[in-house]
Specification:
By secondary structure, the protein is mainly alpha-helical. It has a domain of 74 residues. It is built from eight helices and five strands; from the N terminus they run βαβααβααβαβαα. The longest helix is centred in the N-terminal third of the chain and has 36 residues. The radius of gyration is 20 Å and the shape is globular.
C-alpha cells in the first residue's frame, strides 16, 4: 500500500502496488464549486495588470495554507487508520509532507502562521512557500516528531509494533545547497531511523549508509535474517 502526495505514484508503479491514496501538491477543490473557485483564482496567475499581480499571491497563499494543512492532516489520518485495517504483514510506503516547507505548523499541528508572501524576495507563489528560518523548520520538525509518536502509539495499540519493521528517511536535506556545485556533508546527509522487528534497545551506527541499500535491509528482514533486533550486525551484513 502506498500513501503519499505530490508524485503520480499510481502512474509510475501501476499494478505493482495494491492500494494507493495520493494527494495533489496543488489545490484542486473537492466539490464542483470549490474546483471552479480554484480555477478562477489560478487564472489570475497569468494576468499582467497591476491589480491581478497584487492580489493573486496573497489570495493564493491563504488557499495553499489550508491545502497544506489538509494534506498533512488527511495523510496522517490515513496512516493511522491503515494500521487497524490491514494485516500485520502489509508493506506500507508513506511519503509524509512534514517537515517540508511551507513551515506553517506549531509542534501540535495547528497553524502558527499562513504562507507569507515574500515581496521583493520571491518571484512567484511557489518561491513564497520555501522561505523560512531555522526556527520555523525546527517547529515543523517537532510536529513530525509528534506524528511519529502517534504512529508508534497506534502500532502498539494494535499489537503490531514489536513485529514491525519501521524505517524513516528523507529524499533530501532541509534546504537547498547555498553553494551549488560544492558537495558538503550537511547537505548530502539525511536522517535514517530503523526499528527492526523485536528490537528493544537503541543503537547508533556511525558512517555512511547509502539509502539504495535499504532494499537489501527490507529483503533481509522478510527473509528472517534481521529479525533479532540487533541493528548494527544487520546493517553491516548488507
Amino acid at each position: 500500500m502506498l500513501l503519499g502526495f505530490f508524485l503520480p505514484y499510481q502512474r509510475m508503479l501501476g499494478s505493482q502496488v495494491d492500494r494507493y491514496r495520493v494527494y495533489p501538491l496543488f489545490p484542486k477543490g473537492h466539490t464542483f464549486v470549490e474546483r471552479m473557485r480554484v480555477r478562477a483564482l489560478e487564472n489570475l496567475r497569468y494576468w499582467t495588470d497591476p491589480i491581478s499581480l497584487a492580489t493573486f499571491r496573497p489570495w493564493y497563499a491563504r488557499v495553499y495554507t489550508a491545502h497544506w494543512k489538509d494534506i498533512n492532516d488527511s495523510l496522517n489520518d490515513d496512516v493511522l487508520q491503515s494500521i487497524g485495517l490491514f494485516a500485520a504483514n502489509t508493506f506500507v510506503f508513506v511519503h509524509y509532507p512534514s517537515p517540508h516547507a511551507p513551515f506553517i505548523f506549531e509542534p501540535d499541528g495547528t497553524v502558527r502562521h499562513g504562507v507569507e508572501v515574500q515581496w521583493g524576495k520571491a518571484q512567484n507563489v511557489e518561491d513564497d512557500w520555501m522561505f523560512g528560518t531555522v526556527e520555523d523548520y525546527e517547529r515543523n520538525l517537532q510536529r513530525l516528531d509528534n506524528v511519529i509518536g502517534g504512529l508508534v502509539a497506534r502500532l502498539k495499540q494494535a499489537g503490531k509494533f514489536d513485529e514491525a519493521l519501521v524505517i524513516f528517511t528523507s529524499d533530501h536535506s532541509w534546504r537547498s545547497d547555498p553553494k551549488p556545485g560544492r558537495s558538503t556533508s550537511d547537505v548530502r546527509h539525511v536522517p535514517l531511523l530503523v526499528k527492526l522487528p523485536h528490537q528493544t534497545t537503541p543503537a547508533r551506527v556511525d558512517g555512511e549508509f547509502p539509502t539504495i541499500r535499504l532494499k537489501g535491509l527490507i529483503e533481509a528482514v522478510f527473509a528472517g535474517r534481521c529479525n533479532r533486533g540487533d541493528l548494527a550486525p544487520c546493517l553491516g551484513s548488507l
